[in-house]
Amino acid sequence: MQTSEKKIIPYRHDGDFYFSYGVKAFKEKRFDRAEKWFNKALDIKPTSALYLSQLSVLYTEMGEYHRANDLLQKVIDNHGHTYADCFYLLANNFAHLGLFDEAKKHANHYLEHNSDHEFRDEVLELLEMLNQLSKDEAKEDDLELDDMDELIIYQETAFYHLEHEEWDEALEVLEEMMTFYPEYMSAKHEYAFALFQHGDKEEAMTLEEAWFDQDPTSLHSRLNLTYFYYATGKNTGFQEMLPSLFNVYPTYEPQKLKLAVTLARVGQFEQALKRFLGINQVYVSNYLSYYYWFSHVLAHNQQHELSERIWGQGVKKHPVLDSFK
């Protein structure tokens, strides 16, 4: 008597199946799960430009820039210049690592090899920022090491007073910084902001407008003036300045935070939320303003549960924050 045997046909999911789960986990910021699914997809298609690139974006989001760059280099090794967007991603990662020459090189590679220039404006902005950073770095190299140590102490002290809204103390430190380090522009912009918050609004605006006239590309000036005009009811100046912030995408987390906070201060809560969601919390956890304003922005966007969670994280890390509510 013959018995019929059922044939079992093994079924194996293809790479796109795992990749789709990875994308879903990534959007939910469940990075461990996303990494697992992307690697499963790569087990099936080890040279897939899409899979490699997406995993590199995940590593960038996690602050693991070297690992991200290794994956992007694999795409270039396997596919040549076909996926020129990799050069744009590499440029951003090298900028985060402080390797400005490498960042410039890959930014220029992107402009050379990408015919549609999807990220052309972003790359040009990155190159402009890198050139400015190189100039600033060259100026800083002229300082003696002892002076650099002293400058860092001033920076940390001013940062503490600004974050704790201790305007008198902040102004005193910043005035000294401006005296001893007149080329250090950030101190001047922070001084104008502290002066404004202290109540000397007209003087703060006059100073910032003068610095803006000297350097109309200064993001710090644009952020300060947008807020100053909004807070003093100078609607014409505010409406002229505000749109320029919507097209700015800083590379460094503290700059991203300053932009997000400014948008929140002037009531642009939807735009502010997009910017806060693009900030890697690891690099701004020492900022009280991150937790304070992110929580407020989430509440304004009806995301109350997440707002409370962010606020709770902030109070746990910075107990003084509870007195700001």
UniProtKB/TrEMBL annotation:
Question: Can you tell me where the transmembrane regions are?
Answer: none
Top-level taxon in the UniProt lineage: Bacteria
The UniProt entry, under Gene3D superfamilies, shows:
Tetratricopeptide repeat domain
Instruction: State the TPR repeat positions.
Output: 15-48
**Known SUPFAM superfamilies for this protein?**
TPR-like
Which protein are we looking at? Tetratricopeptide repeat-containing protein
Q: Which keywords fit this entry according to its UniProt record?
A: Repeat, TPR repeat
